[in-house]
Hints:
By secondary structure, the chain is mainly alpha-helical. The chain is 78% helix and 0% strand. The chain contains 21 helices and no strands.
Amino acid sequence: MDATLVGFLALFAICFSGVPLGYTLIIVGTVGFAYVRGEADDVGFFEAIVEGAEPAMTMAGQQIIDMGLNDGLAVLPLFVLMGVFIHRAGLSDGLYAAGNMVFGRAPGGLAMATVGACAGFAAVSGSSLATAATMAKVAMPSMKRYGYADSLAAGSIAAGGTLGILIPPSVPMVIYGILTESDIGKLFIAGVIPGILLTILYIVSIVAVIRVKPSLAPPSEVERPDNIAELFISVGGVIVLFAIILGGIYLGVFTPSEAAGIGAAASLVFLLIALFNRRKFSWRAIVEPLIEAGITTSMIFIVAFGALIFANFTNLAGMVDGIVSLIEYFQLSPVGVVLAMCVIYLLLGCVFDSLAMLLLTIPIFVAVIEPMGVDLIWFGIVAIIIVEIGLITPPIGMNVFVVKTVLADVRIWAIFAGVWPFVVASLIGLAMIIAVPEIALLLPGLMG
Length: 448
């Protein structure tokens, strides 16, 4: 356990010095593994690393090769590509217009429309950061025009963006499924009801905030979209794409990998339609999304490789055994263990982004809870929601900083002030899912 604690301290120190997380995980995991292997020979620190260098390098190389040859990973770049195509196609404009037509007349209606549009965009983008960045550009001008407070306007965008990793398809769900060898299709289906639940809770939180302080959202008008056809294409396209992907997986028509391929191809069609409508078609407009998706996928893979190497180091150093001993000492129930892990996630959310948290912890946590009989599909949804909360809590709050980057004139603390009602709503939703696991497990259970 001592070697593990030193490893984590080294990990944090190197990360904060500016070294990318993936490379940091590879370095610390490989060096730590070498030290623990060489330590058995009762030699000094550097001598132990030299003694264990060969088995450590062999382990690191084997982990990278094994993961790189995993057929299940094909789903990841395809869903990333689908999200990039959807983002470039600009479907968010039509989604926001539709949301405004539904909620526009209600107090705080534009903020509600933003959350609804975020949920719709999340259903096909799979990325929280992309959802937040896109909706910041689409929704903020309207809310500013009608005098919405920066805190409520930017807070609803940052919080609504977090739905991107819960409502399927979701890149973090794919990562979780690969790391735990869980059924990715069931994970996707499990996220549907919790995603709807959190969307409703977010809208309710807006209503509650407006009742307490009506000045945050002056009355507004329903804005009629300039291009009705584009609205129908956007909304209809999202509904059709979501239904094909989730419906096909749920009914067993195709696998998640096949669904990812179909989704990527369909989203390319939406992009082509959008480019032709805007008269901006060019080969560069097609190549750029491919490059963006390739860079994003490469970054995810490097972090994933590093997480597996680091997990091997912590397992060899006895971290899992140490955690099990603590559980036995405090006589924690499975739910108690999950709650303790939720607290750890909230703390990690202050310094890491969503993928980093999952990749760093899942191999360790699952090794602890799986023997206790905890359902891994249910725990996956719990972990995703906790990660969502981490995306909007200080001092890091990746979604908050993304929104701040897009909205340079909005103060960062105004955004943090605006997200707190949504943090409370997320915690309520999390408590409901922990207390009633069937919320997440009902639909997967019907799949058989």
